[in-house]
């Protein structure tokens, strides 16, 4: 018969660091390290993964129609990827090459401009049009347009060289985007179920977070990228019609600026209109100003409700920080990632606020 001294001592559950708690802490630390390493592994492919997800979300209605008519999930996904490639990616690639070629030629032209010739021309215009003299003097003092143009195109030239040298990697990212897009189309139900399973929230709150993410992607792609592309196209079209140089390049620049709140195509067409006026082309300057103000400037108010409807529209300041911060952290994919991360964070904070309102505990009556 064992004596009381031989019996094992009971495990204390009142200490700060019990065996169970230490095990949980170690598991949490190992999980955090594993997630960080997985992020570092996926980081080089983050642009491809982001754009594949965005394309899958906006093309989902079309894919669903195809999937209803074609029993094979593989065939349906392949057809959907082919349509996305032909209708979206191929035009974007062709436009990129066109812009790169045009920007390279225009950069060479700007580099050959003689500063003394420009100064003489500006002085001549100012003397012929005294009303413009004050504007010319102000621009010379504050804007330094010619020097800024040189610096900008020097940067463009460097960027083009970098782009050309990285053509293989760009092509690889494009192929990865299509590869991931195929599986997002094919395995959409399983992917959504996996995401819902990972989220440690009740079903209603899971639906809330996922719906906000879906709305943000739609609002970003349709309400920001598509509208900005239309503004850039209209601006470039007017540049071409008025005979201004590099209309495709400047149209792309106007579209890129239109993505960012508080910026926009105005920063390109307004100086162009001033330049036309300085050249004595007052009719062209008036047409460009009217077109930029009425058509390009107001197209956002017309298209956004049509393309986005009642989906989420972020506050201008929040959208500005989300897009600029996303671009700074993630590069081009930050256009989508920035707003999505900010919106999902807001959704999670809203869940915490609702849970803790009226002094309730965060885990009270919220079992999944």
Computed over alpha carbons, the radius of gyration is 28 Å
How widely separated are the two ends? 49 Å
Q: What's the mean pLDDT score?
A: 75
Determine the structural class based on helices, strands and strand pairing. Answer: mainly alpha
Low-confidence stretches: 156-165
Helix content estimate: over 70%
Q: Which percent range describes the beta-strand content?
A: under 5%
Number of domains: 2
By oligomeric state, this entry counts as single chain
H/I helix tally: 15
Order of helices and strands: HHHHHHHHHHHHHHH
Q: How many strand units?
A: 0
What is the molecular shape? elongated
Describe the main β-sheet briefly.
none
Short key terms for the protein model shown above:
single chain, 0% strand, 368 residues, elongated
């Amino acid at each position: 018969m064992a004596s009381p001294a031989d019996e094992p001592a009971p495990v204390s559950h009142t200490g700060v660091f019990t065996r169970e708690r230490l095990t949980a802490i170690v598991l949490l630390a190992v999980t955090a390290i594993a997630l960080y390493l997985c992020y570092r592994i996926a980081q080089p492919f983050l642009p491809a993964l982001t754009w594949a997800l965005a394309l899958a979300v906006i093309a989902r209605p079309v894919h669903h129609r195809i999937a209803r008519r074609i029993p094979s999930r593989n065939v349906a996904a392949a057809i959907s990827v082919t349509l996305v490639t032909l209708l979206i990616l191929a035009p974007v690639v062709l436009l990129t090459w066109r812009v790169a070629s045009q920007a390279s030629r225009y950069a060479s032209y700007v580099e050959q401009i003689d500063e003394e010739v420009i100064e003489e021309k500006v002085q001549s215009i100012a003397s012929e049009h005294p009303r413009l003299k004050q504007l010319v003097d102000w621009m010379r003092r504050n804007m330094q347009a010619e020097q800024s143009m040189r610096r900008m195109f020097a940067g463009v030239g460097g960027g083009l060289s970098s782009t050309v040298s990285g053509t293989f990697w760009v092509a690889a990212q494009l192929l990865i985007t299509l590869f991931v897009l195929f599986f997002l189309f094919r395995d959409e139900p399983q992917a959504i179920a996996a995401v819902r399973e990972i989220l440690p929230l009740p079903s209603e709150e899971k639906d809330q977070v996922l719906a906000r993410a879906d709305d943000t992607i739609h609002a970003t792609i349709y309400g920001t990228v598509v509208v900005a592309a239309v503004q850039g196209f209209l601006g470039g079209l007017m540049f071409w019609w008025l005979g201004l140089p590099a209309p495709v390049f400047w149209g792309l620049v106007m579209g890129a600026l239109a993505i960012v709140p508080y910026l926009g195509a105005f920063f390109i067409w307004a100086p162009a209109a001033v330049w036309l006026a300085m050249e004595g082309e007052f009719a062209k300057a008036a047409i460009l100003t009217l077109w930029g103000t009425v058509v390009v400037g107001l197209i956002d108010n017309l298209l956004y409700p049509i393309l986005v409807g009642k989906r989420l529209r972020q506050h201008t300041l929040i959208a500005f920080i989300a897009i600029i911060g996303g671009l700074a952290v993630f590069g081009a994919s930050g256009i989508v990632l920035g707003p999505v991360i900010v919106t999902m964070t807001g959704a999670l904070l809203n869940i915490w606020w609702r849970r803790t309102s009226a002094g309730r505990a965060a885990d009270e009556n919220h079992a999944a």
